[in-house]
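Input record (one chain):
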Amino acid sequence: MSVIVYSTPTCPYCNMAKDYFKEHNVDYVDYNVAEDQTKAQEMVQKSGQMGVPVIDVNGSIVIGFDKPKIHALLGL
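The corresponding structure, as predicted from the sequence alone:
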């Protein structure tokens, strides 16, 4: 299971997503796209979006904190 979160420190939905993963014991990698321009470009290439969070679950892109979609992709 590979989970990547593209986020910024001030984004409440980013923090909600990360809290959700912690509650469900899902390991994830968090990239702060406010500081890492390379990862920001990677996020836009994957999603076509500038807004955060963008969540990559095993190659499936979720835009925003779409809990039902994330839940389904994780098989929870």
